[in-house]
Amino acid sequence: MTTSLFDTHQLGKLLLPNRVVMAPMSRIRGTADGYATDLMATYFAQRATAGLLISDAIQPNRVGTANPGAAGLRTDAEAASWRPVTDAVHTNGGRIFAQLMHGGRVGHESVSGLQPVGPSAVAVDATVFTPAGPQSAPVPRALETAEVPEQARSYAEAASRAVDAGFDGVELHGANGYLIGQFLSSNANLRTDSYGGSIRNRIRFAVEAVEATADAIGADRTGIRLSPGAGLWGVVEEDVPAVYGALLDELDRLDLAYVHLEATTDEPTMVGLRRRWSGTFMVNPSTWLQRGESPYGPVPTNRESAEHWLGLGADLVSFGRAYLANPDLVERLRLRLPLAEADPATFYGGGSAGYLDYPGYRHTA
Questions:
Q1: Is 296 a catalytic residue?
Q2: DSSP 153-177
Q3: 43, 155, 178, 323: which is the annotated catalytic residue?
Q4: Record's SUPFAM superfamilies (predicted)?
Q5: pTM for this model (two decimals)
Q6: Domain that holds residue 114
Q7: How far is CA 21 from CA 75, 220, 249, 322, in A?
Q8: Angstrom distances, CA of residue 114 to CA of 66, 138, 142
Q9: Is residue 341 part of a domain?
Q10: Tell me, what's the pLDDT at 154?
Q11: pLDDT for 238-261, tens place per residue?
Q12: What is the mean pLDDT of residues 332-347?
């Protein structure tokens, strides 16, 4: 029987009413000192008809802080500020996971107060966001071998705070060139110890971070997002099928809530990875392989691309930009209604404009 976007799906202890997921997107509506706001509670509550919501990228510890103005889970006080957000989502009948993002070398001392850290002392050739505007990324401090497990545990510690704050689970951000992706890479990771060199060693950090998180809050509440071969933030990955195949083989034994893959490699590789994963497989079809003339990156996910991936074996499909301007996205997809387009000028920072003021579809007689 053909799987529909509007079928239910069992995700751990959660029964999702549909297979439409709101992808994690950093909207930067937190306070300057890292707290979630009432604006954020309203924003997520507006979109609670999704089968699952995934939050903005949330910093798990101080040294992993990449973005100014992003709400964190670094302290109990920051976690408490998320409680109105999760309560609002649950009141509206929704479910929400927190995405945990350690920036690694993608950061700046003026944001965190600390020199960024990474697998090796290799800077990304890019500018990063700071309170004073874009600045060149600094050279990170290479983590000592004995320090690496502490950074892996930071995800688990933030996950415990997330669950205490009412989140239904967490997603580790292993995609897009942040710390987990830096360990997986062949150019940001030049280590010669047990965390570098061979594929088995390069996937070790990701596995340890996920294991620690699953031990802390339960595997059924733990997911991970990956972007095979994406090349974002200067990360190079050699032999993508082998690296990600080995990683999924290791993670598959943990019985996680899901793995969330961006369609950043070719379709045969994606399908091959799906075959190696026995649990819930989420895909974001918004591919970086088809930028075309778009100045803002990937081609947005639509109903056609979502159904294509369901046909290839995905269980859930995440939508990013489509959710910015369409809080009623599930209903628009169900009825094949036109989708509004978001204004890129309001993607990050600011107030309610371009955040809370997108209306539901207006039916006319």
A1: no
A2: HHHHHHHHHHHHTT-SEEEEE--TT
A3: 178
A4: FMN-linked oxidoreductases
A5: 0.95
A6: 9-346
A7: 28, 17, 24, 11
A8: 11, 11, 13
A9: yes
A10: 98
A11: 899 999 999 999 999 999 999 999
A12: 94
Residue 4 belongs to a domain: no
Q: Does 272 fall in a domain?
A: yes
Work out how many domains the chain is built from and give that number.
1
84: helix, coil or strand? helix
In a domain, 246, yes or no: yes
Tokens of 177: 């060139």
> Which residue type does 147 have?
E
* The two structure tokens encoding residue 258: 């899901």
Tokens (6 digits) for 242: 């082998």
H helices present in the chain, as ranges: 38-46, 76-91, 109-112, 148-164, 179-184, 199-202, 204-217, 240-252, 267-275, 303-311, 321-325, 329-335
Residue pair 163/156 in contact by the 8 Å Cβ criterion: no
Residue 296 and residue 344 in contact, taking contact as beta carbons nearer than 8 Å: yes
CATH number of the structural domain spanning residue 110? 3.20.20.70
DSSP 3-state percent helix, strand, coil across the chain (nearest 5):
35, 15, 50
**Rounded CA gap, 174 and 42, in Å?**
27
Find, among 176, 175, 205, 174, the residue nearest to 189 by Cα.
Answer: 205
- Long-range contacts from 249-252, C-beta under 8 angstroms, 24+ separation: 249/276, 250/203, 250/207, 251/206, 251/207, 251/210, 251/224, 252/276, 252/277, 252/278, 252/279
What is the number of residues in the chain? 365
